[in-house]
Amino acid sequence: MRSGTGDAFSRRRWPLATMSSAVFISLLISRFISPSGARQADAHVNNPEQYLSNPSNPFFVKTLGKKIVVLYVSHLVTEKYGLQFGPHNSPMLYLLPNEKIEANTKIYGGCACFNGWAVICRKYKLKQGDAVVCELERSGGVVTVVRLHFPNE
């Protein structure tokens, strides 16, 4: 009978069994989360703060995946910066190097996202793996502008 406490079976098969849950969670978070709130696997932009118009603005690094329908703001970024968003379908702006694009804020399951992202990705010929620094600007405490910076250009 295998008790799972200290026998050879548990040590070989379950190396994390001896680790406390708090240590495991902190290792997991430090491995996958960067200071911007983006997953480290996605955050391959060196020093994204250098691209910001205002260094005190909240930001995150978005690496394009297969789905480009909307631009999601993760719960981690929202909580880290204490972000607030307008109601569902409230207007917002994407500020790009040479233009402004109007879009809407969407709220799904408590998670904020912005439509119009697919249009920007196609127009700027962004492909899977490309990184974009998304700088969030607030008006009256509510995020109304996403300023996009393209470090790969």
Automatic annotation (TrEMBL):
Boundaries of every TF-B3 domain copy: 60-152
Gene3D superfamilies cross-referenced by the UniProt entry: DNA-binding pseudobarrel domain (2.40.330.10)
Entry keyword set: DNA-binding, Nucleus, Transcription, Transcription regulation
GO MF: DNA binding
Classification via SUPFAM superfamilies: DNA-binding pseudobarrel domain
Cell compartment(s), UniProt: Nucleus
Keyword set includes Metal-binding: no
Transmembrane segments: none
GO cellular component: nucleus
UniProt key word Acetylation: no
UniProt-recorded name of the protein: TF-B3 domain-containing protein
